[in-house]
């Protein structure tokens, strides 16, 4: 078995439960700004947000839109889809989301146990497509920041996963060797294919048990299965 020294974790939906935290954040926003009468179908709201958020993050990663456009358009497009045309409401929800979302603290099951086990044995890093301030706040507020020696974001690197250049940046910035490093993530394309194409070993955290035919270094369905690998 390969001797690893450096473990790179994706953050959202690998350690920090993005889906649960988004749902909690939006409930708080709806309560705070009395939106339940304006937007009556909360589940449709969540579903539509998820679609546009993913699409716009992909465009941002390709350099097709700017940071501010991503933050606003995911809500304006979503509201338009829900037949609500209100630019002020888009801005209000966006501002509230950026403030409240990083404060949420739900983590993926077994995150603390796994990090507690790994911390004495390896250098641990976060490698995430996201904005440094936001992702750092998520780490701090969820109580897992102290496990990590550093956080590398796409904002820092100026490249997004799966681009090989962000993986190269992640290694160089902490003086790590590719042969001694492992990428752990839940996104088959962004995390796993990106690392694979770069030549870094990978652990696909396939928590939704999706079917695929990609040759992967390791695959797990529960986070605590990492302990059996490492």
Kindly report the spatial arrangement of strands forming the biggest sheet. 3-2-1-4-5-6
Q: How far is the first residue's CA from the last residue's CA?
A: 9 Å
Radius of gyration (CA) equals: 18 Å
Can you say what the CATH homologous superfamily of the largest domain is? Answer: HAD superfamily/HAD-like
CATH class of the largest domain equals Alpha Beta
**Low-pLDDT segments:** none
Main structural class: alpha/beta
Average pLDDT works out at 95
- Output the helix-strand order: EHHHHHEHEHHEHEEH
Tell me, briefly, the overall form.
globular
CATH fold name of the largest domain, please?
Answer: Rossmann fold
Number of helices: 10
Q: What is the strand content?
A: 5-15%
The share of residues in helices is: 40-55%
Count structural domains: 2
Biggest β-sheet strands, sense, barrel: 6 strands, parallel
Label the CATH architecture of the largest domain. 3-Layer(aba) Sandwich
**Number of DSSP E strands:** 6
What does this structure look like?
The protein has 230 residues and is α/β, with parallel strands linked by helices. The chain has two domains: 6-17 and 107-229, HAD superfamily/HAD-like (Rossmann fold, 3-Layer(aba) Sandwich), CATH 3.40.50.1000; 18-103, DNA polymerase, domain 1, CATH 1.10.150. It has ten helices and six strands, in the order E-H-H-H-H-H-E-H-E-H-H-E-H-E-E-H. It has helices spanning 18-32, 42-61, 67-81, 87-100, 111-118, 132-142, 154-157, 164-172, 188-198, 226-229; strands at residues 6-9, 123-128, 150-153, 181-185, 201-205, 218-220. A six-stranded parallel beta sheet has the order 3-2-1-4-5-6, sandwiched between helices. Strand 4 (181-185), helix 9 (188-198) and strand 5 form a beta-alpha-beta unit. The longest helix is centred in the first third of the chain and has 20 residues, at 42-61. It is globular and about 55 Å long. The mean pLDDT is 95.
